[in-house]
Amino acid sequence: MSAAVATQTVTADRAAVVAPQTPGRQFTAILRRLVLYLTLIILAIIFIGPFAWLISNSLKDAAHVFDATWIPQPVHWDNYVTMFQAAPLLQGLRNSVIVAVLAVSSVVVSSSMVAYGLARLRFPGSNIVFLGVLATMMLPGAVTMVPVYLIFKQLHMVNTFQPLWVGNLFGSPFYIFLLRQFFLTIPQEIVEAARVDGANYYRVFISIMLPLVRPAMLAVAIFEFQGSWNNFMGPLIYLQDPNLRTLPLLLQIFVGSLGQGGQMLWNLLFAVSVMITIPMILIFFVTQKYFIQGIATTGLKG
Amino acid sequence: MSTPSLAESDQRGRPAATVAAPGALKPTRRSHLQREEAVAGLVFVLPFILGFMIFTAGPMLASLYLSFTSYDVLNPPVWVGLHNYRQMVGDQLWLKSLGNTFFYAFLHVPLAMLTALGLALLLNTRVRGLSFFRTAFYLPTITPVVAASVLWLRILGSQNGLLNAALGLLHIPGPSWLLDANWVKPALVIFGIWGVGGTMVIYLAALQQVPKEMHEAAVVDGANPFQRFVSITIPMISGVLFFTLVLGSIGALQLFTQAYIIFPVDGSSTHEAGPQNSALFYVPNLFEQAFSYFHMGYASALAWILFIIIMIITLIQVRGSRRFVYTEASRE
Question: How many whole angstroms separate alpha carbon A154 and alpha carbon A206?
Answer without folding.
Answer: 36
